[in-house]
Design goal:
The structure is a homodimer of 481-residue chains. With 481 residues, chain A is of the alpha+beta class. Chain A folds into two domains: 5-212 and 387-474, Zn peptidases (Aminopeptidase), CATH 3.40.630; 214-268 and 313-384, Alpha-Beta Plaits. Chain A is 36% helix and 21% strand. The first copy, chain A, has 14 helices and 20 strands. Chain A has helices at 6-27, 39-55, 130-150, 173-181, 231-234, 241-249, 264-267, 273-280, 286-293, 303-311, 352-370, 394-407, 421-430, 455-474; strands spanning 59-63, 67-68, 71-75, 79-84, 92-98, 118-119, 124-126, 157-163, 192-195, 207-212, 214-223, 229-230, 315-322, 333-334, 337-346, 375-384, 387-388, 412-416, 434-436, 452-454. In chain A, strands 1-4-8-5-9-19 form a six-stranded mixed beta sheet, with helices on both faces. A four-stranded antiparallel beta sheet of chain A has the order 13-15-11-16. In chain A, β6 and β7 (124-126) form a beta hairpin. Chain A is globular and about 80 Å long. At the A-B interface, β12, α5, α6, α9 and α10 of A face β12, α5, α6, α9 and α10 of B. The complex binds zinc ion (2 copies). One zinc ion binds next to α3 of chain A.
């Protein structure tokens, strides 16, 4: 029997004005984690959350993480953990979000003040952090409040984990989660995990996200002369590191996205008929792609190929070169040491170490073929594993029912090309299923200028989060995969 | 009959202390032409020259060049023109130098204050502009003074042209020279030209320079998406401009310096036996090269091949990429628009326009082969022609005798890989032979930190400039080639 949600939904609509005020106050705190000078604003934002959660009757703790590695004078912002309800007869759901934001300056090209929530005539709510990730974080708080004011019993025990360093590498968070997920830790009782920190594939239809690509990031350094040389004086006499580097970078991938590194393709899990059948239903068109690219320069011609290329196949991107001339104008330098940067987005079943071995062997062999006197160093700067969950798990089927209940359509089952490292940390630390349940839409411009959250996504999203808790409280645990 | 130079030489030695003081005062004026805030120091340096030249009895004019193009509020530094002697029975020699300098900050890594002439125990005189080009400019003034004080008649009419924007593109100079070289202009009477603004090939032996390579500088812009993309989200779905650019840059030149652009090699003037025979005598070793490279990463194994590669064969250097990620660290960007920069050092008989046509055709064909949906734009940012004079011209044979007289060895006849555009301007405007007669040595670090001029090069160099004027006054004009 479907949960009784009408009075909850009605109360969300009734409170929508105050929910927007809550978001307005949050956006007004410039909690930019990358900016040392804004660290006290990040802390102020954590205090705002603590205060709001206490008012709602939650048990709240502000957990210090110690000094920031490499900046011993600077304390990391705390992790806010909170518990709402602790009934042994209810399921326990752990949710995650972050209260820090990307940097933003009016001068970057914002049409409005980035730290003033500004609502236009199409109900788009502009402001840094509106969609990433203050809106979703407050969605959980809103949902508690609407249950209280509607007099509807809260369906689960809710554990919350809100961090303040997500946009700056989540310093210290992995260890924290691992510790708290252990026996007796704050997250110990969790039956499932839900993260609301990504986006719909489009603007109309909700989605559940069950997979993320990993990322192996590489440096190829080529070094020759002791210092930069003048090309007039030494051009033709010295072997040039840039010549070698361009030839190595050119052998990694072709214009059509085919990775040229021997052995990579063989690591990719074959496409099953069942998986292939998922893509046709997804609400996405090539015009959606062209719009987000701002061009027609796609690799593939069809929606299915494009989505698979983004979600379930690896890709290789050359990002740039450090140490070479990169400014406007003309400089006749022979750079002495240049470092090419590229990364591979990884998918099942590509293991980090296996990919590294193939990349190193490929680059070393390519360099050897050049017969250069320069020296080569290739290394993996960092690597994060891909993640794929089963969309048939009860955590997902519950969320799918909630989404259909709120939006009237079954959600798309999506994967994402980028990585959200905390996903895999929660999965491994808790051993429980992790669901990504986005609130914002594809046009929200997280990390960019004019970030926004549509009023509809915020208010219906608050309904969605609450509805999800009802469905997940009742969903038969038949699919534990 | 060889000129009587003993009393001139003796007087130079006698005045050496005051010549060094003259250089000290000049180095103390930070006449950095690239720095707008230092423009009045550049002007102050011009006034110092005017005052010194007047004291020596020269006719001096400070010629304004008007506002700096693109910076209409900023006046260009003046060109100082001067005439010392105007006897119809004497030859007229036009000399050129520049009184502006490269930027320098102690923090750049200078061991001493850059704008304080500091002499160490090996008589190396450190200071910005010491060798480039204040030492040589003052060398001409010193030579006038030593003639006066020794009571030796000055052998020629000396025309001087000292500019204050050489390190910043010699704005406005070409038009000025062209005008003054015309009938009735200040340089009209010149019989030959001498420029002292380059360097010996080594540290022991003087040289005369009779050739310079030209430079064609290119941009290859590749453009795809409307804005930078996240490689997680779009990697595999979008054709990436960096992929195309690395493949184009990789096809320009190989590790061993061979230019891969069809048709370039055929433009190079063949090596004659006569020219080849010049290289063996030149005082230069592979160890000299290794020392200046700071490595053993040479293209060639022998001195002769190396010198020819630097002086008489073209070279192609890839300088860098604008628009890609170039900072330290890891950024997962797909750059939307990237511009590769490369240049070709040109030699006889490569014509600028012909080279451009071959480069454009090569790049366009390489791009076409990629089958990319991105767009390409290749252009020549700037081009300067190569220059080669006949080292048998009387201007050179006179200078060779002077150098042998001062240093006891015949000078090396050298060319340079880099360009000194004013050389070709003087040659074309006056129609006279231009000689490059360097004062400083290969270790002087012009344009770098710890620029210096050895006391020996300054004092013997002053003797050389004076001796040159005596020999050039008498040299039979049999080789006018
Ligand atoms: Zn986020
Ligand atoms: Zn110079």
């Amino acid at each position: 029997m479907a949960p009784q949600l009408d009075s909850y939904f009605k109360q969300v609509d009734h409170l929508s004005g105050s929910f927007i005020e809550r978001l307005r106050k949050a956006v007004a705190i410039p909690s930019v984690s990358a900016d040392e000078d804004r660290r006290q604003d990040v802390v102020r934002m954590s205090e705002y959350l603590v205060s709001e959660l206490k008012t709602l009757g939650a048990h709240v703790e502000s957990r210090p993480l110690g000094p920031q590695p490499g900046k011993e004078h600077l304390q990391l912002p705390p992790v806010i953990v909170a518990r709402y309800g602790s009934s042994p007869s209810k399921r326990t759901i752990l949710v995650y979000g972050h209260y820090d934001v990307q940097p933003a300056l009016k001068d970057d090209g914002w049409a409005t003040e980035p730290f003033e929530l500004t609502i236009d005539d199409k109900d788009r709510m502009y402001g840094r952090g509106s969609t990433d990730d203050k809106g979703p974080v407050l969605g959980w708080l809103n949902s508690i409040q609407a249950h209280q004011e509607a007099g509807v019993e809260f369906p689960v025990n809710l554990l919350m984990c809100f961090e303040g360093m997500e946009e700056s590498g989540s310093e210290g968070l992995d260890e924290f989660i691992e510790k708290e997920a252990k026996k007796g830790g704050f997250f110990d009782a969790a039956d499932a995990v839900c993260i609301s920190d990504n986006y719909w594939l489009g603007t109309e239809k909700p989605c559940l996200t069950y997979g993320l690509r990993g990322c192996n990031y590489y440096s190829v350094e080529i070094k020759g002369p002791g210092q930069d040389l003048h090309s007039g004086v030494f051009g033709g006499a010295a072997q040039e590191p840039m010549t070698d580097l361009t030839r190595i970078l050119a052998g990694l991938v072709d214009t059509h996205g085919t990775i040229l590194i021997l052995g990579i393709a063989a690591l990719v899990a074959p496409l099953t008929d069942e998986e292939q059948s998922l893509y046709g239903h997804i609400s996405y068109t090539m015009d959606n792609l062209y719009e987000s690219l701002g061009s027609h320069t796609s690799v593939h011609a069809t929606k299915e190929q494009t989505l698979m290329a983004r979600w379930r196949y690896p890709s290789l991107s050359v990002h740039g070169i450090e140490g070479a001339f990169s400014a406007p104008g003309a400089k006749t330098v022979i750079p002495a040491k240049v470092t090419g940067k590229f990364s591979i987005r990884t998918v099942p079943d590509m293991e980090i170490e296996h990919v590294n071995r193939l990349v190193f062997a490929h680059v070393e062999k390519a360099f050897e073929k050049l017969g250069s006197k320069n020296s080569l160093r290739v290394s993996c700067q960092h690597a994060g594993k891909w993640w794929v969950a089963s969309p048939k798990h009860w955590n997902f089927t519950a969320a799918a029912k909630a989404a259909e209940r709120v939006f009237g359509v079954p959600p798309d089952l999506t994967r994402e090309g980028g990585s959200i490292p905390v996903t895999i940390t929660f999965e491994q630390a808790t051993g429980k299923n992790v669901l990504l349940l986005p609130m914002g839409s594809s046009t929200d411009a997280a990390h960019s200028v004019n970030e926004k959250l549509d009023r509809r996504n915020y208010i219906e999203g608050t309904k969605l989060l609450g509805a999800y808790l009802h469905y997940v409280a009742e969903e038969p645990m038949t699919n534990g995969a």
